[in-house]
Amino acid sequence: MRNLLLALILAILPISANAQTTPAAPANAAAPASGQAAYRINAGDSIEVYVWGEERLQRTITILPDGTFSFPLVGRVEAIGKLPYEVEAVISKGLENQYRGQVPQVTVSVQSPAGFQFSIMGKVNSPGRFTPGRYVNLLEALSLAGGPSQFADLDGITIIRKTSQGLTTIRARLGGLLKRRGAVDAVTRRAIPDIQSGDTVIVP
Prior knowledge:
One of its GO terms (cellular component) is cell outer membrane. The protein is of the alpha+beta class. It has five helices and ten strands, in the order H-E-E-E-E-H-E-E-E-H-E-E-H-H-E.
């Protein structure tokens, strides 16, 4: 079972990796559209902020435990739960009083998603809390937990996620996927849930 799980992950990783290296959008851009869930910043993440033409404002910042960081000429910026382009917009707005003309373009990129954490419990070989340092989907999360145990019900997996409206549950069925042979198509890849920071995965 574990070898088959690893084979599926290797088939999916090339596309996942491409999705993760998409450049950060400029401050006036709309939210990016991608098959991979957009990454929201967490406490402990390391981000790089670059203001074009202003080397004195280029720096790498670690998000504080309260989800904020300080930036010159702007002050305290709340970043937790925001997309990088949303933080760009906040910084650009804060810099408006510092420039007579148009504010230089601000770019924010996540250098190290160290605050990205999730838990797996139930019928996996190594349950616990994980900090992978990168984005993962459900298949990759199961691999980090040592794979499902012999009697795991892979069609009954539940992801518990905290949102602004409270706790929500996501059901996932991977049993049929693990029985497939050959390449995994794009539609199947998109059907595999992405893990978000703070998720709890339960494998019955």
